[in-house]
Protein backbone atom coordinates (compact mmCIF):
# COMPACT_ATOMS: atom_id res chain seq x y z
CA UNK A 1 0.00 0.00 0.00
CA UNK A 2 1.36 3.41 -1.01
CA UNK A 3 0.10 6.31 1.09
CA UNK A 4 -1.93 8.65 -1.15
CA UNK A 5 -0.01 11.70 0.05
CA UNK A 6 3.12 10.28 -1.59
CA UNK A 7 1.63 10.60 -5.06
CA UNK A 8 -0.15 13.93 -4.84
CA UNK A 9 0.71 17.62 -4.64
CA UNK A 10 4.11 19.18 -5.11
CA UNK A 11 5.89 16.33 -3.32
CA UNK A 12 4.28 13.80 -5.66
CA UNK A 13 5.39 15.86 -8.65
CA UNK A 14 9.02 15.98 -7.49
CA UNK A 15 8.93 12.28 -6.60
CA UNK A 16 7.73 11.45 -10.10
CA UNK A 17 10.35 13.68 -11.73
CA UNK A 18 13.09 11.88 -9.78
CA UNK A 19 12.26 8.87 -12.00
CA UNK A 20 14.72 5.99 -11.84
CA UNK A 21 16.66 7.70 -9.05
CA UNK A 22 13.61 7.35 -6.80
CA UNK A 23 13.16 3.70 -7.76
CA UNK A 24 16.85 3.04 -7.05
CA UNK A 25 16.40 4.57 -3.59
CA UNK A 26 13.17 2.99 -2.34
CA UNK A 27 13.84 -0.40 -3.95
CA UNK A 28 17.56 -0.57 -3.34
CA UNK A 29 19.14 -3.99 -2.78
CA UNK A 30 19.87 -2.99 0.82
CA UNK A 31 16.14 -2.40 1.35
CA UNK A 32 15.13 -5.60 -0.41
CA UNK A 33 17.55 -7.63 1.71
CA UNK A 34 16.21 -5.97 4.86
CA UNK A 35 12.74 -7.20 3.95
CA UNK A 36 13.93 -10.72 3.25
CA UNK A 37 16.14 -10.86 6.34
CA UNK A 38 19.21 -11.65 4.23
CA UNK A 39 21.14 -8.41 4.68
CA UNK A 40 24.64 -9.08 6.07
CA UNK A 41 24.71 -7.96 9.72
CA UNK A 42 27.95 -6.05 9.06
CA UNK A 43 26.13 -3.94 6.46
CA UNK A 44 23.36 -3.11 8.92
CA UNK A 45 25.72 -2.30 11.80
CA UNK A 46 27.69 0.10 9.62
CA UNK A 47 24.47 1.69 8.44
CA UNK A 48 23.25 2.07 12.05
CA UNK A 49 26.36 3.89 13.22
CA UNK A 50 26.39 6.19 10.21
CA UNK A 51 22.66 6.81 10.51
CA UNK A 52 23.18 8.11 14.05
CA UNK A 53 25.83 10.54 12.80
CA UNK A 54 23.46 11.47 9.99
CA UNK A 55 20.66 12.22 12.46
CA UNK A 56 22.84 14.72 14.32
CA UNK A 57 23.24 16.78 11.14
CA UNK A 58 19.61 16.18 10.16
CA UNK A 59 18.57 17.78 13.46
CA UNK A 60 20.80 20.76 12.66
CA UNK A 61 19.09 21.07 9.27
CA UNK A 62 15.65 21.12 10.90
CA UNK A 63 16.89 23.76 13.33
CA UNK A 64 18.01 25.82 10.35
CA UNK A 65 14.61 25.30 8.75
CA UNK A 66 12.89 26.61 11.89
CA UNK A 67 15.05 29.73 11.79
CA UNK A 68 13.68 30.47 8.31
CA UNK A 69 10.01 30.18 9.33
CA UNK A 70 7.80 32.82 10.92
CA UNK A 71 4.19 31.62 10.64
CA UNK A 72 3.10 30.01 13.96
CA UNK A 73 1.56 26.84 12.48
CA UNK A 74 4.66 26.21 10.37
CA UNK A 75 6.89 26.80 13.39
CA UNK A 76 4.89 24.31 15.46
CA UNK A 77 5.06 21.67 12.74
CA UNK A 78 8.80 22.02 12.11
CA UNK A 79 9.58 22.17 15.84
CA UNK A 80 7.61 18.96 16.41
CA UNK A 81 9.73 17.27 13.70
CA UNK A 82 12.96 18.52 15.28
CA UNK A 83 11.84 17.32 18.72
CA UNK A 84 11.03 13.90 17.26
CA UNK A 85 14.54 13.61 15.81
CA UNK A 86 16.20 14.70 19.06
CA UNK A 87 14.02 12.25 21.01
CA UNK A 88 15.01 9.50 18.59
CA UNK A 89 18.74 9.89 19.28
CA UNK A 90 18.85 7.97 22.60
CA UNK A 91 16.46 5.37 21.16
CA UNK A 92 18.79 4.95 18.21
CA UNK A 93 21.74 4.45 20.55
CA UNK A 94 19.76 1.85 22.50
CA UNK A 95 18.98 0.05 19.25
CA UNK A 96 22.67 0.13 18.33
CA UNK A 97 23.47 -1.52 21.66
CA UNK A 98 21.06 -4.33 20.79
CA UNK A 99 23.31 -4.95 17.79
CA UNK A 100 26.45 -4.96 19.92
CA UNK A 101 27.48 -1.39 19.15
CA UNK A 102 28.27 0.65 22.26
CA UNK A 103 27.61 4.36 22.57
CA UNK A 104 31.38 4.89 22.76
CA UNK A 105 31.85 3.01 19.51
CA UNK A 106 29.19 5.07 17.78
CA UNK A 107 30.67 8.34 19.06
CA UNK A 108 34.14 7.28 17.94
CA UNK A 109 33.09 6.19 14.45
CA UNK A 110 34.41 8.50 11.71
CA UNK A 111 31.85 9.82 9.29
CA UNK A 112 31.77 7.89 6.04
CA UNK A 113 32.18 9.80 2.80
CA UNK A 114 28.54 9.09 1.97
CA UNK A 115 27.42 10.58 5.29
CA UNK A 116 29.49 13.70 4.74
CA UNK A 117 28.31 14.08 1.15
CA UNK A 118 24.64 13.81 2.06
CA UNK A 119 24.48 15.84 5.25
CA UNK A 120 26.70 18.67 4.03
CA UNK A 121 24.71 18.88 0.82
CA UNK A 122 21.47 19.35 2.76
CA UNK A 123 23.05 21.93 5.06
CA UNK A 124 24.58 23.79 2.13
CA UNK A 125 21.18 23.98 0.45
CA UNK A 126 19.79 25.34 3.71
CA UNK A 127 22.47 27.97 4.17
CA UNK A 128 22.42 29.20 0.56
CA UNK A 129 18.74 28.75 -0.30
CA UNK A 130 15.34 29.63 1.09
CA UNK A 131 13.03 27.61 3.31
CA UNK A 132 11.41 25.76 0.40
CA UNK A 133 14.75 24.68 -1.04
CA UNK A 134 15.87 23.34 2.33
CA UNK A 135 12.66 21.42 2.90
CA UNK A 136 12.91 20.02 -0.63
CA UNK A 137 16.31 18.58 0.30
CA UNK A 138 14.87 17.08 3.50
CA UNK A 139 11.78 15.43 2.05
CA UNK A 140 13.33 12.38 0.32
CA UNK A 141 14.46 11.18 3.75
CA UNK A 142 11.34 12.27 5.64
CA UNK A 143 8.76 10.69 3.34
CA UNK A 144 10.98 8.16 1.60
CA UNK A 145 11.54 6.08 4.74
CA UNK A 146 7.80 5.98 5.34
CA UNK A 147 7.22 4.78 1.79
CA UNK A 148 9.90 2.12 2.22
CA UNK A 149 8.41 0.93 5.51
CA UNK A 150 4.89 0.70 4.11
CA UNK A 151 6.09 -0.98 0.93
CA UNK A 152 7.99 -3.64 2.85
CA UNK A 153 5.08 -4.29 5.19
CA UNK A 154 2.77 -4.71 2.22
CA UNK A 155 5.16 -6.85 0.16
CA UNK A 156 4.39 -10.61 0.25
CA UNK A 157 8.12 -11.25 -0.13
CA UNK A 158 8.85 -9.51 3.18
CA UNK A 159 9.55 -11.90 6.03
CA UNK A 160 8.87 -10.54 9.51
CA UNK A 161 8.88 -13.70 11.60
CA UNK A 162 12.46 -14.52 12.49
CA UNK A 163 13.73 -11.50 10.58
CA UNK A 164 16.37 -9.65 12.65
CA UNK A 165 15.36 -6.43 10.89
CA UNK A 166 11.62 -6.73 11.57
CA UNK A 167 11.66 -4.06 14.29
CA UNK A 168 13.34 -1.59 11.91
CA UNK A 169 10.74 -2.28 9.21
CA UNK A 170 7.81 -1.98 11.58
CA UNK A 171 9.13 1.28 13.02
CA UNK A 172 8.81 3.03 9.67
CA UNK A 173 5.27 1.78 9.16
CA UNK A 174 4.18 2.79 12.67
CA UNK A 175 1.11 5.03 12.85
CA UNK A 176 2.76 7.66 15.03
CA UNK A 177 5.72 7.86 12.66
CA UNK A 178 3.41 8.16 9.67
CA UNK A 179 1.47 10.94 11.40
CA UNK A 180 4.68 12.93 11.74
CA UNK A 181 5.47 12.34 8.07
CA UNK A 182 1.99 13.48 7.12
CA UNK A 183 2.50 16.70 9.08
CA UNK A 184 5.79 17.35 7.26
CA UNK A 185 4.16 16.69 3.90
CA UNK A 186 1.41 19.18 4.67
CA UNK A 187 3.98 21.81 5.68
CA UNK A 188 5.89 21.14 2.48
CA UNK A 189 2.75 21.55 0.39
CA UNK A 190 1.94 24.84 2.14
CA UNK A 191 5.43 26.19 1.46
CA UNK A 192 5.24 25.02 -2.15
CA UNK A 193 1.92 26.80 -2.68
CA UNK A 194 3.43 30.00 -1.30
CA UNK A 195 6.80 29.88 -3.04
CA UNK A 196 6.98 27.31 -5.87
CA UNK A 197 6.15 29.06 -9.13
CA UNK A 198 6.68 27.21 -12.39
CA UNK A 199 9.96 29.03 -12.90
CA UNK A 200 11.36 27.18 -9.86
CA UNK A 201 10.32 23.67 -10.75
CA UNK A 202 13.56 22.63 -12.46
CA UNK A 203 15.86 23.88 -9.70
CA UNK A 204 13.72 22.35 -6.95
CA UNK A 205 13.47 19.08 -8.84
CA UNK A 206 17.27 19.00 -9.10
CA UNK A 207 17.60 19.44 -5.33
CA UNK A 208 15.05 16.70 -4.64
CA UNK A 209 16.65 14.28 -7.10
CA UNK A 210 20.15 14.95 -5.79
CA UNK A 211 19.05 14.21 -2.23
CA UNK A 212 17.35 11.06 -3.51
CA UNK A 213 20.56 9.95 -5.21
CA UNK A 214 22.50 10.57 -1.99
CA UNK A 215 19.96 8.46 -0.09
CA UNK A 216 20.59 5.53 -2.45
CA UNK A 217 24.33 6.00 -1.96
CA UNK A 218 23.76 5.78 1.81
CA UNK A 219 22.19 2.33 1.38
CA UNK A 220 25.00 1.26 -0.94
CA UNK A 221 27.52 2.36 1.68
CA UNK A 222 26.31 -0.42 3.98
CA UNK A 223 26.61 -3.08 1.29
CA UNK A 224 30.05 -1.85 0.26
CA UNK A 225 31.24 -2.03 3.85
CA UNK A 226 30.11 -5.63 4.20
CA UNK A 227 31.78 -6.51 0.88
CA UNK A 228 35.07 -4.97 2.03
CA UNK A 229 35.00 -6.97 5.25
CA UNK A 230 34.28 -10.17 3.34
CA UNK A 231 37.18 -9.59 0.93
CA UNK A 232 39.66 -8.74 3.70
CA UNK A 233 38.75 -11.73 5.87
From TrEMBL:
Enzyme Commission code: 3.5.99.2
Keyword Metal-binding: no
GO cellular component, one term: cytosol
Ribonucleoprotein as UniProt keyword: no
Function noted in UniProt: Catalyzes an amino-pyrimidine hydrolysis reaction at the C5' of the pyrimidine moiety of thiamine compounds, a reaction that is part of a thiamine salvage pathway.
BP-aspect Gene Ontology terms: thiamine biosynthetic process
SUPFAM superfamilies in the record: Heme oxygenase-like
Protein name per its UniProtKB record: Aminopyrimidine aminohydrolase
Species of provenance: Candidatus Pantoea gossypiicola
Amino acid sequence: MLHPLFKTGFYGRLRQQAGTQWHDYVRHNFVQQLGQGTLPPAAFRHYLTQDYLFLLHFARAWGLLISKLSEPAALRSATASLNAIVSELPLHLAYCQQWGISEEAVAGEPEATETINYTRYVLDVGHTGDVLELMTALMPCVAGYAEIGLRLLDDPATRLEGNPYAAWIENYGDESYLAGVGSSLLLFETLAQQRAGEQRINSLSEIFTTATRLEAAFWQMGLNHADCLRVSS
